[in-house]
TrEMBL record:
Annotated PANTHER family: PROLINE SYNTHETASE CO-TRANSCRIBED BACTERIAL HOMOLOG PROTEIN (PTHR10146), PYRIDOXAL PHOSPHATE HOMEOSTASIS PROTEIN (PTHR10146:SF14)
Native organism: Corynebacterium amycolatum
Modified residues (N6-(pyridoxal phosphate)lysine): K34
Pfam families in the record: Ala_racemase_N
Keyword Transcription: no
Signal peptide as annotated in the record: none
Protein name, as recorded: Pyridoxal phosphate homeostasis protein
Family that this chain belongs to: Belongs to the pyridoxal phosphate-binding protein YggS/PROSC family.
One MF term in the entry's GO annotations: pyridoxal phosphate binding
Keyword Zinc-finger belongs to the record: no
Length: 240
């Protein structure tokens, strides 16, 4: 069932790209597998990979760590690329470094510093996206748009976090926002405003925006990654 849903969403993404005058290859579909039992993911992964899926995303680091261990045991080098898309506490930086290939929710220098120390000790690098709270919701994680330029300047080989490879921005739009496309457009415009003065080695090519309910609008505004959970894995089952 997961594979059928993945193919359906991928087809809809491809159609949305064509409507926007873009190539389907420009947009990555990143399935969000939070709360999905790892046994079900292991069973489905060979078919998902054959359908073109390269990785999975998790919100909680603890869940990602346990799943990544199972994936490595089951698939070795063919295990899913693991992206963390939820906020990180600094005391969990080591756990993230142990399991993640990508972190999309970097929102403040303190977290970047904790990751830098752990990555330097592990002698590895990590692709990161800065999460920007474009919708300006107080309950949401993310950097204020006005602080993005200052944070971006702290990256690069000669910056404060040489082991963090900045690749772009991520945002989460407000639920049921009738003006959601404006949110995505603002992130794209923010990114474009910074392209002329980036530190060496820094890229802002990635715009991770759009989820199950709004990825069509995100693609129209330049998303390069859409994070889709419910449309692939169904409604979530949360432990009380």
């Amino acid at each position: 069932m997961f594979v059928e849903n993945y193919r359906k969403v991928r087809s809809e993404i491809d159609d949305a790209c064509r409507r926007a005058g873009r190539q389907p290859s420009e947009v990555r579909l990143l399935p969000v597998s939070k709360t999905v039992p790892v046994d079900a993911l292991v069973e489905s992964w060979p078919e998902l990979a054959a359908a073109g899926c390269a990785g999975l995303a998790e919100n909680r680091v603890q869940e990602a760590v346990s799943k990544a261990e199972v994936f490595r045991e089951a698939f070795g080098e063919k295990a899913p690329h693991m992206a963390i898309i939820g906020p990180l506490q600094t005391n969990k930086a080591g756990h993230l470094v142990s399991c993640a290939d990508e972190f999309q929710a970097l929102d403040r220098p303190k977290v970047a510093g904790a990751l830098q120390r752990r990555l330097a000790d592990a002698e590895r690098t990590l692709d990161v996206l800065i999460q920007v709270n474009v919708s300006r919701e107080p309950q949401k994680s993310g950097l204020a748009p006005s602080h993005a330029a200052e944070f971006v300047r702290m990256f690069g080989p000669d910056g404060d976090y040489p082991n963090l490879r900045l690749r772009g921005f991520m945002t989460i739009a407000a639920q049921n926002d009738p003006n959601v496309r404006e949110t995505f457009a603002e992130l794209r415009e923010l990114r474009d405003s910074l392209l002329g003065d980036l530190p060496e080695g820094v890229s802002l090519d990635e715009l991770s925006m759009g989820m199950s309910g709004d990825y069509h609008e995100a693609i129209a505004e330049g998303a390069t990654t859409v994070r889709v959970g419910r449309a692939i894995f169904g409604e979530r089952s949360y432990k009380k």
